[in-house]
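Supplementary Methods. Inverse-folding protocol.

Structures were first reduced to a discrete structure-token string of length 212. This string, shown here, constituted the complete conditioning input.
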């Protein structure tokens, strides 16, 4: 399917939408309620909003409605072995982009995981990329991809990502992101016709910080 605009434009539109949402609620960049909620207390903070969902360009007969409902990737893990599954299928090579309003994704500055992907069913590889905030976008230099995202690496088949390790060359204060994009790595993993690609149950930010 042809894209209506380049990936970099799409990324920037998401940042603008996120910032407008924050200002619309509060009328200011800071939100005291957000400061209360976006606190790293060890429990993590789960994605709250779907920003984009583009499953495989190849249509598939979904196992159930929830298998193609990106809302099932929000909140705490709740996937089940029988329908409704509570997890969304990316399709072969598909993408899912999630936000964490009223928080941004931060890091703890140590080797502890900062982001955890809760996948359901067979483990299928995904590429994880982070959308900078309006503030951090200009601080990232060469780690920022042409599509406006920063790809982060983890051990093969890992679900825990230490953003600090991947971005050690940029200042800790610049390691703050507005959204997480997951892209299924096509042509690997189990062949599951009605739930193709990675099946995402939840995405957890271990260090949520108030939007600013
Ligand atoms: Ca870390
Ligand atoms: Ca879920």
């Amino acid at each position: 399917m042809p894209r209506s605009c380049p990936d970099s434009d799409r990324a920037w539109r998401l940042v603008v939408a996120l910032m407008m949402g924050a200002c619309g609620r509060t009328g200011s960049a800071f939100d005291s309620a957000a400061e209360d909620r976006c606190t790293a207390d060890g429990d993590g903070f789960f994605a709250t909003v779907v920003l984009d969902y583009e499953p495989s360009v190849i249509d598939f007969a979904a196992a159930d409605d929830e298998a193609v409902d990106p809302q099932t990737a929000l909140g705490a893990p709740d996937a089940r072995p029988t329908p409704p599954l509570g997890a969304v299928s990316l399709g072969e090579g598909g993408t899912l982009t999630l936000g964490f309003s009223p928080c941004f994704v931060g890091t703890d500055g140590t080797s502890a995981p900062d982001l955890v992907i809760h996948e359901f069913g067979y483990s299928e590889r995904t590429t994880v990329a982070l959308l900078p905030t309006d503030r951090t976008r200009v601080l990232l230099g060469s780690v920022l991809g042409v599509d406006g995202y920063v790809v982060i690496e983890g051990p093969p088949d890992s679900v825990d990502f230490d953003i600090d390790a991947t971005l050690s060359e940029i200042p800790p204060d610049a390691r703050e992101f507005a959204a997480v994009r997951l892209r299924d790595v096509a042509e690997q993993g189990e062949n599951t016709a009605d739930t193709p690609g990675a099946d995402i149950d939840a995405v957890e930010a271990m260090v949520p910080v108030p939007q600013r």
